[in-house]
Amino acid sequence: MEIAYWILGGLLALFYLYSGGIKVIRSQDQLRPMMGWVDQIPMPLVRVIGALEVLGAVGLILPPLTGIAPGLALAAAIGLVLVQIGGIVTHVRRGEVKVIGLNLALLVAAAVTAWPATTWL
Hints:
Helices cover about 75% and strands about 0% of the residues. The chain has five helices and no strands.
């Protein structure tokens, strides 16, 4: 069970470190080609979403790795599920139903990661 967590959690953490990091660091003009929705969302909120993704990635890895508050891994996985629900809602409202495939895959991956994370409770 732990091996499955580390594989899936590690992949999710890498994805969210990158995705969240670029939302925090890059300008609206730099994000626009990849994320058309940044024109409709205030940049401070985009930065908050990015920071939450980075914190979620860190929460998936550091607590179980260090043994300090390992239950936070479950909270991080659930938080990333909520981030993806927000992303799906945003895309559906914008009429971009065709592009929610990645959001759905990340939602499922985060939900599946939450299950083995319960081993540390």
